[in-house]
Specification:
By secondary structure, this protein is an alpha+beta fold. It has two domains: 281 residues, no CATH class; 171 residues, Alpha-Beta Plaits, CATH 3.30.70. It has 21 helices and ten strands. The strands form five sheets. Strands 1-4 form a two-stranded antiparallel ribbon. A two-stranded antiparallel sheet has the order 2-3. A two-stranded antiparallel ribbon has the order 5-6. A hairpin with a 2-residue loop joins strand 8 and strand 9. Helix 7 packs across helix 11 and helix 7 packs across helix 14.
């Protein structure tokens, strides 16, 4: 019965999460709630002294493991659910599976590294935490760039292939959230233990989804508190017992084990610090400027890079497909962060979809009217290649398509030529996209800190008499 209830809860939460991430309406409160169920996206806010919506939900999710164990990992986590499906399939094929104790050490190392990085301007923890990876799966149908595609393939390999021989590999060895729940679970008030009725038949060892039972004893570091051992044991030897929190475990009383645990702790801290400084050394050295146009709602490059986990959900909803990822122009920090490629498309003036679906708050939600005033860049005309300036022939393509009226056609040497009023330009990029020259004569210069433009004005293109179709260059 426990097994069926657990599967039903897992499947329900998986379906609800999928529907939420596939719904492209505003859904701002729903995304805030979904984010609050996950520690690291919420903690990235607290590191910046911002108290996000539904913070009490996150705190509650941290209290539960102190009471009864890793309920989220076993009953709610969609990534864990996928790995459990793999476990059930492999069990029917008789492929040998094994428990790897070293995974606990690796997960602790990743946890230390993630906690160090979350206080910096980079957000590399998004490369480990299940929250970002699960959302990133929804971008498979979109061109996300080779770097993000590699991340997706590695994640799929870690939850679909490696668990064939190492059940719950991602949860036990890579997920920093799982490492936090593991540490809290070690000192939970209520625990699952085997009584004297255990005859070491080994049935529970084969049924455990993490293979963390040895000779009737549960390895607490790997237990996800699924309670399936209570039901699978023929002797009903497993029971829930009460233990006062933070009491030393008996296996720590041995002096040699104490030394080993101390050495492992020091090794973890040292390795985490070494990896942290190595990443910061090879990452983006300067966040004071940007070579890429970042999406509206990002506020600033520093805010965006410290909040975006590279889930690429915004890419999947962009109607013009202007959003791309995988560029290294802003250093390694930007390899999995979205940017706007105006050579391929433009940011639609009548759209704020990316702001609506961002699950981490990296893109702050604004209504359409407010979004239409956000300056993400500024148009700049190269007069050495622009057709009216060089060839003295009219070309009003950029002014004709400008949605804010920032580009006006003015008479220069008796030829209508474009001029940019930066008070009205928002950097949507449509002028760059429609420019007929190659390379483009008008380009968008990115802004490190986003500001607001004046309300749009109507284009005022003066009419020049006696212009035939032959006067147009395209």
């Amino acid at each position: 019965m426990i097994k069926k209830i657990r599967f039903f809860i897992q499947l329900s939460f998986f379906i609800c999460s999928t529907i939420l991430l596939l719904s492209f309406d505003q859904g701002n409160q729903a995304h805030d709630f979904f984010r609050s169920l996950h520690f690291f996206p919420t903690f990235s806010y607290l590191a910046k002294f911002i108290f996000p919506t539904f913070l009490y939900i996150t705190l509650f999710m941290l209290i539960i493991p102190l009471l009864i164990g890793r309920i989220y990992c076993s009953y709610l986590c969609p990534v864990g659910f996928i790995q459990d499906i793999v476990f059930k399939i492999i069990k029917k094929t008789k492929v040998p599976q094994k428990f790897f104790p070293i995974l606990s050490f690796i997960s602790n190392l990743i946890l230390i590294l993630s906690l160090l990085l979350i206080f910096t301007a980079s957000n590399y923890q998004g490369l480990f935490d299940h929250f970002s990876h699960f959302i990133r799966l929804f971008s498979l149908t979109h061109s996300v760039g080779y770097v993000s595609f590699i991340f997706i393939l590695l994640f799929l390999f870690s939850i679909l292939v490696i668990p064939i021989i190492a059940p719950r590999f991602f949860c036990q060895g890579l997920c920093p959230s799982g490492a936090i729940y593991k540490i809290l679970n070690l000192n939970a008030l209520f625990n699952i233990n085997a009584s004297k009725a255990c005859n070491h038949c080994g049935v529970c060892e084969t049924k455990c989804p993490t293979l963390c039972i040895r000779d009737g004893a549960i390895i607490k570091e790997a237990c996800i508190t699924c309670f399936e051992c209570l039901e699978s044991c023929p002797q009903k030897a497993f029971e829930i017992t009460f233990k006062f929190p933070w009491r030393k475990r008996k296996d720590f009383l041995n002096q040699n084990k104490k030394r080993r645990e101390t050495f492992k702790t020091l090794l973890l801290i040292g390795s985490g610090l070494l990896a942290f400084f190595a990443i910061k050394k090879t990452g983006s050295a300067n966040l004071m400027g940007t070579h890429l146009v970042i999406p509206p709602g990002a506020k600033s490059l520093r805010h965006f890079y410290s909040s975006c986990t590279g889930c690429n959900l915004c890419l999947t909803v962009c109607p013009t497909k202007v959003l791309k990822s995988g560029s290294t122009l802003n250093g390694y920090d930007g390899t999995n962060k979205p940017y706007l490629d105006f050579d391929e498309a433009y940011c639609s003036f009548e759209c704020n979809a990316c702001l609506s679906v961002c699950p981490t708050g990296a893109l702050a939600y604004d209504g359409l009217a407010q979004k239409q005033l956000i300056k993400i860049g500024e148009s700049k005309i190269d007069e050495t290649s622009c057709i009216p300036y060089v060839h003295k022939r009219i070309c009003g393509s950029c002014a004709e398509h400008c949605p804010t009226g920032a580009i006006q056609m003015v008479l220069i040497d008796n030829v209508l030529a474009p001029k940019v009023d930066r008070n009205f330009c928002i950097g949507c990029g449509i002028c760059q996209k429609v420019c007929p020259t190659s390379p483009k004569s008008i380009k968008i210069a990115p802004l490190t800190i986003h500001t607001y433009a004046y309300s749009p004005k109507k284009n005022n293109i003066p009419k020049k008499p006696s212009i035939s179709n032959e006067d147009f260059p395209f």
